[in-house]
Fold each of these.
Amino acid sequence: MTIGEYIATLKSNRMTGFSTMKIVTSEEMRQIEQACSSIGLPPEALMEKAGKSIAEEVGRILGDVNRQRVLFLVGPGNNGGDGLVAARHLHDQGAGVSVFLAGRRPADDPNLRLVEERNITIIDASRDENLAGFDELLASASCVIDALFGTGKIRPLQGVFQQVLEKTLRAKEARGGMRIIAVDLPSGVDADSGAADPASLSADNTISLGYPKTGLFRFPGAERAGKLSVVDIGIPDYLADAITTGLTTDEWARSILPRRPLNANKGDFGKVLVVAGSMNYTGAACLACSGALRVGAGLITLATAASLLPVMAAKLTEVTHLPLPESEAGAISPRAVELIDQQSKDYDVMLVGCGLGQSQSTVDFVRALLLKQGLPALVIDADALNTLAITPDWWQRLPNDAILTPHPGEMGRLSGLEIAEIQADRTGTTRKFAREWQKTVVLKGAYTAVAAPDGRVMVSPMANPGLASAGTGDVLAGTIAGLRAQGCPVFESAVLGVYLHGKAGEMVRDRLGEAGMIASDLLPSLPAVIKQLKEQSQERNAAGN
């Protein structure tokens, strides 16, 4: 399981006017907590709220807590303090709670005292010879809560910390029904880089406090986190306003979905010109056109090599066509630029690149087309990105409202970076080049990152190996173009397109599984996701009334 499969409890924050869940670094979290102290919210108050919220979320995850035996692994710092508060509240809810103190707590720790007053079983590692007491608690536990270490910088896990985590892992392997829940992030996972100590547990759930941490969206940490819940710990929203990295949520997506008035006609929902396809890649063009249609664009025209028209017309009943002159069978000639220039004024968006191929004549055509002035809003994908990569100073010659949709390999060719370097900091890399190029950049992959020229970044909460197949990127490019045509702003079109595409992938995975999912499976799920989001909004409005 990955954290993108489930976002449970979301806190509303503001980001450029929209309700957004922020993603924070450890330093940003430290600064927010310091700001809380300055406005009369001391660490003790945040810890009490955090522990209560953890207990409530654990109860939601486990169900009837009266039937659960929950073992808390408590460390020496604030993460351990949060665990102690949660242990107390979970005990008060009726769970069978025990605590293992893996690290020394302060002598006057009020949260430890409150746990002791409830006669909760506590075993101190310093007095537990050969960890026999821990073994006894672990043997009867139906759930283990990892509250050893949180966002602080930690040394490699050694000694008793390593031992109890390794014992917990073996117990999990022996009886898979035992659930592991991490507080804030699995102990040993770096809150910023996602680097994971070998002893770090692979949690079934991670309950992140206040805001999810960047390391939860970077591998290998992302694989250790399981399903993610983000719980409110009482931090005022405005203290995170300056943070420019957000996590896309259902709430945000609903606020961006284009409206569809009852008296609308197809012209109200925009026109997309898709320049795509070649002899070897007819499917890419069809998937891109269908993606734009399935998110509600009013009219789609496919501009492709004239000899491919019979194939395309048979596949695309609802699409109009603009046959283009060819340099050879199935390859668009540079002469086509003039024809597209004449026609493009009637369109709101032009998507270029899906399945165009990389013959020299096609490269010449793409370069001449993209660098021409007066084009509609651009979405640039696939082979058009590869052409840009071999075009000097291309970013200075493209309009600033262009949306680029590279996968890591294409991003490497555009930026000159190695793929490993890109993947090591997907968010930072996307932000850096969006600013440098002054373009909106969609870096595809697990937890797709979308960056705006002004430094904003939104991260998709989804990672789905089922989408790692040919054609899914073409559907995404069409989805973004279709939303842009309906009047969504540039950055929001890209973020919403990624989100709808990801949710459609999850819907297909739930129905078919990960293996064997194909790109065309996403198409009927796109309108289903939009319908689902709108129905949720209607239900919430009805509940509010």
Amino acid sequence: MSKSPREGLALLLVLIVITMLSLSAYTFTSLMMAENESAVLHGQQLQARAAVDSGVSQISYFLEQEPLVREDLGGTYINPDLFQAQLVIDHPQPRGRARFAVLAPEMSEDGYFGGMRFGLEDESGRLNLNSLNMEVPDIVGDPDEVTDVTSGSAIGDLGSLIGQGGGSGSGSGSASSDEDEDAEEEDIEVDKSGRTMLMQLPGMTVDTADAILDWLDEDDDPRQYGAEYDYYGGLAEPYAPKNGPLESLEELLLVRGVTPELLFGRDTNRNGIIDLHEQEIIIPEDLGDGTLDRGWSAYLTLYSAEKNTTRDGFARIDLNGDDLELLYEELSTVLDPGWATFIVAYRQFGPYNSPEDQEGGGRSSSSAERVPPGDQPLDFTRSGRVPLTQVLDLVGVDVRAQLDGGEDPVILECPFPNEPLLMGSYMPRLMEYCTVVPDPIIPARININRAPYTVLMTIPGMTTEMADSIINGRDVADIEFDEEFQNETWLLSRAILTLEEMREMMPYMTARGDVFRSQIVGYFDEGEIAARSEVIFDATSAAPRILFWRDISHLGRGYPTELLGVDLTDSTED
């Protein structure tokens, strides 16, 4: 029986409706599947960020401990037990198993960056921009004559400006002449200006160094080769210089002469590794030695500081305290009583120079009795009229003291001889427990145990020979566990610096730091979802605080999961 045309049309319409409904259902299902996948990916992204947060908590807990406890837990430099592939979310399948890893740049044996490690980076291994000396001398001659600022030497009229002197006295950091022996004893004034320190950065020019200092200082007067408002106000999009401390290193990109290539180098994804696609980046100022691979940002900081405490967390003894009886008691509890007697007597009477010493005749043969310091009685009512500028003031000097109840003064022989072989026996204890800085926190000194070669060269008076000796004398992986290297004066016992050179450089050097930088990666054992942050922790207080936190997840995971650490075992039960 044939169907009417109306029935055929109705059937066609039904087929069309069914098709449309099917397509709609398919589209809706696809959208819901995409939405579900998006929700899953978003959830994983949140889990990856939570893994980063777990890494932050782990680091904070670790930094709450005193240095000796940190050493027992594996230390800050290389510690995969605490900082590699730490499981946060357990899951039967690798795709759902979340972890975090904490990474920092590795340093090669010659003091340059190379590779990565699982640990923290000491900010005191960098040059603190906000603490630079703003006073700079004018340059005589053409600044373009500077051709070798990374080696600690300069060409032409800048020979005395850039890294030529290492302090007063003779030695590897002092100018000398084979034809004139007196020149070896002549004091060389070390240039301690911020310009000289900045000039040690690879690719730095005098123009850019002065411009950076002009950006930091409070006035509007341009330096010899600097730039102030007159320059920045004349740009197509004018702005004013900061004229104050930086809040982030990225602010330097506003300074005349600073480019992204100079500041960040080739390492565009900030993973500390020059990937294949980054090797093609051209930096005109590059010297070809890898020093600009990570740019100036690898050598600069705004945050370095250290606690003025012993390794077990107790405040050091201020040798310039007013209460001399209390000073003696505090010193006697941790040091030899003879040392305590000598230090208090020094505060009361100062160093003794006999007439023979003043005339160059050597040690005194004075009629005053010479005695080694012991538990001799002291008159604690006598004020401490002679302050110490450094702990090193005690080295190699005698004290002519009037003992309590004694009729004639005696000469207390120095228990701290200026002999490198003997310094290793007393200097670690003296530096560990004593200080002349009353503040609980000391900012901006450079950690000679952690600084790369480039940063070592920024220390005023540093020479290439000194820097090479420091690098050859340390083992960056194990140095935090060796008692000899816990204070910067190991440079004396190793005869790397003379006493006078050490005096000049000591305000700029330390052997420890308590502000740490970390790059934390949250990731899964399988899949591409990851989160990455750069975090700086201040551990100078009892409860570490976060000074800086930057999310760099947009730059990608940065590292293969094989390096971070994974477990690809599928533990789902059949």
Amino acid sequence: MNKINIIGAGLAGISAAITLAEKNYECRLISAASSERAQSVMAEGGINAALDTMGENDDPIQHFQDTMKGGVYLADPNAVYELCINAPDIVKHLCSIGAALRIKDKQPILRNFGGQKKKRTAYAKSSTGKILMSALIDEARKYEVSGLIQRYPHHELCSLHIDNGICRGISIIDIYTNAAIDLDGQTILCTGGMNSLFSGMTTGTTINTGDVTAEAFYKGAELANLEFIQYHPTTISIPQKRCLISEAARGEGGRLFTVINNKRSYFMEEKYPELGNLMPRDVVSREIAKAKQLKNGCGRVYLDMTVIDEESWKNKLSDLRDECIDFLNTDPMKEPVEVSPGIHYFMGGINVDKKHRTNIKGLYAAGECACQYHGANRLGGNSMLGALYGGKKAAESAAELINEGCFAITDKIQNTCSSYINDQDYTIDKHTAEILKNALGIFRNEKKLSSAYDTLSNLCERRTLSERHKKRLVLARAMLLSALNRRESRGSHTREDYPEKNDEKFLKTSIASLNGNNIEITLRDIPEMRGNANEV
């Protein structure tokens, strides 16, 4: 029987593996670290589903509408519709396999989250990712015992084998022994965000480098919407990365403020009275950046969580409080915490259709490495949902071709992993990150973007670069070109020189493709709504 390769063992990867195993298909679950150390474990706030357990007359159609609006209508409405319609069953299934979400009367309790008017986010304090991963790891183990899921821990992808537009297999390397292995078969990529491009500046794990996305791009996969990078409004600085202060804190009543003329200004509540501190993340991040630049201001923004009641701290946010005490030596129950926006999520990535197929036959992508569901801005609570549903859809698509005989590597033993051994250059990573951060901040303009592109182009000509870093820099340049090409402001992409949204020209998906050594950026129409989605 043909085995399917899955790269990445977080929520998307493990969801794909379980889906295949339930269909009695064999797969290989390949990851640099164990599932217990996946980025998904770090997800805090919750998972969205219109379960309406809080009696607010919520339904999946409202979830769909909020998701499309939050993404400024740049996502495929057909894919988003299916995501939202299936969300309640996904959360119910998680509860059925032992995910310890907070419940009352046997129903999940839901909390408020940004960009949504209804309580729709199921949670487990502020450790929801850890709870969901624990349940899914246990679920996967019974299939590992039966042999349907075969684990390849401490391995990473170093090469996709693409021949005549078909992914025929992969080469992986054992990061403990440097032993390389060729594996035939279709491949599902579930490798998370592109954190290596912003080394030390993201809330994400450094394990999620973006190298697999770069390899896919280099081998012919289309990328989409690379310009859309989510800055989470409330992060703090810790060694080597940013630490998240979960949106759940604002969902439970936390208030953002700055000080102007020695007086607190609750700027989000003053400017956006309906949703206040729970506006979509792109809006809150921009307002924080502006508040820091006010002439009569203190140059800082704080999150006041002292207003949150003791019961909520004990039953909903105790782990968040522990983080503030451990990392900041500050008790958020007693004093405000200074916060700043930090890079948190990449809405762009490998371009897939609503079945999570790439433009290469036999190659699929799901989770944060794929461009799907979130458009120009992701709603909090939709990432874990998108990863779980996306992994399932990718697996189902791969299963449709399981009996085709074309997925075998035609030319093996090429030592394709040799350049991945001892090639880390942290000086280049840090330099690249500084260049990108300056150009791809919350506010952008042509001068900064063009200068960054030219600088990275010159860096690409250095002969001392490894293949890994050459591909990273090609990916970085594609990101800059995508941002240059989108001459408007939409969602997380704010152009100072083009401050208005332009639906006539740019209500389209940015597509990046590699033609030889040339990066090409084109615009593609958003798919029309079809079937039931068209009735919304």
Amino acid sequence: MAKTRNATLLRRGAASVGAERVESLEAVPDIVLGAYTRISDDQEDELTGDRRAGVGRQFEAIEQLCRAVSERESAWKINGPAYEDNDVSAFKEVLRPGFERLLLDLDSGVISGIVVYDLDRLARRPKDLERVIDIYDRAARAHRILHFRTVHDAIDLSSPDGITLARVMVAFANKASRDTGRRVAAKHRATALTGRPVSGTRPFGWYWTRHEVALADGRLLPEVIKPSSKGNQAIDAAEAGEIQRIADDLLLGCSINSVVRDLNGRNIRTSKGNPWSGATLKQLMLSPRLVGYRVHQGEMLVDPKTQSFVKGQWDPILSEETWGALEDLLMGDENATVERRSEAHRDYFLSGLLRCSECSGPLHGNARTEKHFYYACKVRGGGMNGTGGCGKVSASGVAVDEIIGALLKARMRTVDAGQPEPTGWEGGGALEVVKSKIRADVDAFSTATGELAQRILAQLRGLQEQADELRMQRNAWVHEQGRQQRLRTVGAEVWHELSTADRRAYARAELEAIFVRRATRRGNRFDPGRLVPIWRSHAPANA
């Protein structure tokens, strides 16, 4: 490198030399780079509430680097807003939108390089680094210069040595992430075994409190002093009441979608403040936390010391019997699920219950005018199993709805409102005995061999059959208790205040079907004798 002739510079003067340097820098075209920032968990700033403090600090450091390079080398400019992935891991299999935009702009020529705070901000998985290297290789073959720089290291991805160094650094970062992941997973499992709730979004039905909480089973949760903890969870009476109401509605036969419409119609929102959806509601009602059990990685957690399910540090909202019946209902036969979904889209009170006496096909509601509609057997696609119906039977929808509604209201009056509340399912003790025997046999089977193991296995099968039968009896009891409770609280005076979906749910709980005979005489007056209701077995025959 040629030595600087300082005496010559002295003769020319500092002002002249400085002007020449400014002109030379201005002559260099701007190099537009992409500033990429990422952090896995950007904690909220306690003073400002800002959840972008981490990526903000990274961007400030990148800007300082670009200014320093521009003063002594090339004119480095950042392309508009940063390519940012806040609260996004570079180790997990998740989409990073900012990273994908960065690679797209780099490959298409929108930017001429990447600047990051550190290499592990850009990539922690070797395959992500290789995607970046491929772009730099293609650019080199096309004689296009791409730059790469981190705040802390000068890594040249256009050279073999720089690529090797980057690969080694990412491999070590990947190993560090795996080690951290194992430690974090072990910590989360240990926390779950204590029954402590996850310090995330408030679950619907409970609220966070830092005060002391006395649980119904006698456990006492002390006052929470630790600033980083959200505290204890106590039952929110209003939301718990909604959960119990939802359980009653579903067990009585209301569809998921009709319950969702009711919640959203009353402006009841999820704990995040969002409207309800069928998937969100189903997830809530299937959660074991409703009956007080801790879940870890999607499953109820078993304590290895006691061989029992871990109880959460909160009070349950539903009984195990009710929750078990809900699971059987919501995770039952796929055909039943399809029927419940289609039920939610019906606009007519007796859709799905009315049957043609000629072909046994369903009668469908059809509106002739705004004030009049009728139920009719359809010739095309209206019969059993998707085949065509006979088309020979139709009936006035208004008349049929009024007659069946009157029959249902009459049944409600027969329920004894003064009847004492049931204390519980009488088979609960027997089910617990069977479950205890199953646990004992499972423990014995784990160490047994040969003929003894075969005998224990056969006994286990028999015990499981007993447990399944008892659970079926329990679910039937829960369903009947829900029906009786609803009949106690809903009478003729509020029948017309109920939604069509709720009235249909009552009808389906009481009726197997309603056969409609063909009309035998002409006239405007509907003949009630054309209706043949088939009541469910729990209903009195003379009703």
